[in-house]
Amino acid sequence: MTRNAGGEQLVKALGLDKDVVFIVVDANDYCSALSTLKQEWETREGDEYIVNLTGGTKIMSLVVHDFFATMKSRFYYVPIGKNTFYDIASGTSSELHYRVNLKEYFTLYGIRYKNTKESELTHTEQEDTDIYNEVREHRFRLPDKLRFAQESPSSELRRYYAGTWFEQFSYFCVKRALHLREEDIGLSVKIYREGDQALNDNELDVAFMYENVLYIVECKVTMRGLAGAKDTIEEYLYKLAAIAKDFGLQVRPYIFTLHRVQSLSEATRDNLVKRCQILGVRNIIYGNDFMNMESALSKPLTM
């Protein structure tokens, strides 16, 4: 049977063997697709089918339903954004207990990735937290060691104080608040889209799966560039929105920052809210939001 990339990715993510049968149909032609299915499907007496109608185009779902309706079949549908599955015949919904991890999700989209493991970190979670608390005590004005990170005595410390500490702090903050497993969350996630390419296409500061939804996070200690804070923030919003488009319909992009967003003018904050809404960025998490991350991730888009 002919295989296609989407099918291969699904088989790989599910960990199925290579004997899976692929039938490639015209996704937008009902009659052609039904004819192909009838020609290529091998029906055996006594077989019973469990049919998932969720994926594919609407035409494909109709074809699959009509084809298997003539056999002993049970049909199910998984509504997007809900961890339930719906039994078509009985009209009942049941809870979907399985939670997809980060590797499984990216594999479904044909994406390979590498991330920094907790065992590879050179600074502790407590060190990251201590820096955040120091910044918070100073009303989110950065101490000199962060403002002048490039003057630190070693390249490792320069990277750490320039922003790595904040990425690590954000990672642990999310992981603890949402009780995530290590396989559900990644730090400094390098994305590779094509085969064994050596260079990554993009890097996500933090990415995690929660309730079968992918969250991606851009971490910025400060967002004041040469053009001013407003323009710099908008650049980050556009970049984040562009990256998010590659990861499916249910992606929740966020910006995490220590920038004093509340110090921006009301007009600027209103404009940023509108930009977030247009671009599909869920929110900008800042300031004391990190004290209650679970609540911050679900708060309304306001600044």
UniProtKB/TrEMBL annotation:
It comes from the Bacteria. Residues 12-105 form the Card1 CARF domain. GO terms for molecular function: nucleic acid binding. InterPro entries: Card1_endonucl_dom, CARF_Card1, Restrct_endonuc-II-like, tRNA_endonuc-like_dom_sf. Residues 156-265 form the Card1 endonuclease domain. Gene3D superfamilies: 3.40.1350.10, Hypothetical protein VC1899 like domain (Restriction endonuclease-like). SUPFAM superfamilies: Restriction endonuclease-like (SSF52980). Signal peptide: none annotated. This is DUF1887 family protein. It comes from Hallella multisaccharivorax DSM 17128.
